[in-house]
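Re: [help] complex structure
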Amino acid sequence: MNEQSLSQDSSLVRELRRTMARMELALGQISDGLVICDGAGEILWCNTTFEQFVGQPRLLLMGRRLISLMGALLPAETRLNLDGLLLQRPEGGTITAVACREPLQVIEIEWRPVLSEQPVPYVFRFQDVSARVSLEELRLRSQELLDQQLSLAAQVVTCPVTGLPNRRGLLQALDASLDQLEHQPGWLAVLFCDLNRFKEVNDIYGHAVGDQLLVALARRMQRALRPDDVVARLGGDEFVVLCTSLMHPDEAQFIARRLLDMVALPWTPEDTGTSLEILPEMSVGIVLCNSGKRSAAQILHDADLAMYEAKRSRSREPVIFDAAMDARVVRRQEIHDSLRQALKDQRLGLHLQPVVRLSDGLLVAVEAFCRPVDGQGQPISPREFIAEAELTGLIGSLGQLMLQRCFAAARDLRLKERGLRLAVNFSTHELARAGFADDVIAMARVHAFPPELLTIEVTETALVDQPQRTRSELERLRHAGFRLVLDDFGIGSSSFNSLVDLPIDGLKLDHTFTASMVTDPRRCVLVGAILNLARSLDLDVVAEGVETCEQRQLLLDMGCRLAQGFLYSHPQPLDQAQIWPVQLQPLHC
Amino acid sequence: MNDAFRDFYGWDDAGLIGEPIGLILPEAFRMAHQLGFSRFTATEQSTILGHPLRLKTLCADGRVIVSEHFIVAEKRTEGWVFGATLTPLPEGSEPDQ
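Output below.
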């Protein structure tokens, strides 16, 4: 062997040693125990995990027969006959053996022959599969437990907090009453009662006080009822009263009012050490029934709808279910779906109407209207979609999307370059939202739209619910240079005080005045007075709903400068608005 | 190799010099020895150096004797050099526990 081949051998050995070292390090890190045995079953090598498995160092394991170590791995009763297994299945295989029952330890052993050598060595892999088996066992055990609990729950017919019948108990009673109604005349009433703002009680005073209140109200309700009536708690803040053997449907309303009166009495929780007083309120929906043909579930569903209507109306009066409610619910759902879709697609119908100078029809401003459409492509009225958006919390996103679309339309119409104002309307909910003004200011900045050209139209009702917060947002907007005008002036809760009290630049005369002033002299006088007042206060006035030449002339005569209405143009989509001339002529004068 | 080793274990120079030291280990220990040795050359960390170990040792005639091995190592410019003393233990002695 010459010097060169010796050097090559030496390099090869070094390379092999490096490779083997890496392999051994890698095999030492895996979580399975690995053992290589020669044909006689003696251990030639094992990894660190196997050392830990059997609790002995490798030096001691070398040369020992693997079968002799099984005692350290498995209890006597499950001792494996490895020799026998290797004889039976020389091609390799896997077995699972329980090493310990408490705590459960299960080991999976896999063996594979190294076929290139004779006698054949074997590679063994040991894996602790206790966690896997335990999980499976746990799953089985928890399923058994769940089945037991469900079976027990199916027998429970009372609410654990109030002791009243629960939904199951109520349905049993309602089914029995409906059966009875098949055979004897009379009326049955289901009163669906839902506490208002109960969540606030839980949030502010804690669930213990909330539970106390539920118990107290359950007792009050029982006292307000006749001996045979049933009051049940469905869960949360929902109670249902079942009244049977009514001679007249009106009796249900009397009972409902009695319930409302009893519930509304002030209540003080026990053991709080405070003089805390809560004024409970609830909404009641009623379903009346004089035949046993309807299902209990359907009756409860209808009563729930009626209660929902009562809650929406915000009045204390109970609401009796009628078939139209179903249609209204379907319609609301349709509107809700349409709004969600519009938000998802970032598409929202926008219509624009010109505001003109009455004397010559000069275009001075554009009012934008949000016009979402329903599933059939039909426009949804503002009254419908705003109410639904406010109720479902979509109003914020909708307002933002609308403003974006308005700014895009303003860009397309080149309003800024033409010095034309853009007027937009926001929901009263939006105006009261903290941060609303900041959002508008930021968005105008992003779209480089001058604040003095953006007019925000506000109705006085915006200041009814949360006057402080709304006023604060409006003042921020005005301070930032935006124009504010009072919309629909003259109707509803209009007050002359608003003209001096609110930070406004103008007002819009409601279309009902415009419509009636021609035929009603008293109205005409009122319009004249409003215009004079506004002029004295240096407020711009836009007359809304101008439809006829007479109206236009009368307004001009009274000194009204600005107007909008069908006489000049209906609200139009953007492509139509883009072809408006600088001066719009009345359509039929 | 000194004479004492030659005398007791029966190995001569012709049979051992230039051969892997694994030859004096029983067959079942050779793989572990090779891997352990490889690991040491790669990591330079050892659990067996510098302290006595009772290991099975293979004699030239095939007998296996439990002996006390004391292995030392020294790193030189040309690489690691290993040396060991082997002391045969009385018959019936057990390898290290």
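Residues 438 and 477 of chain A are 8 Å apart (CA to CA).
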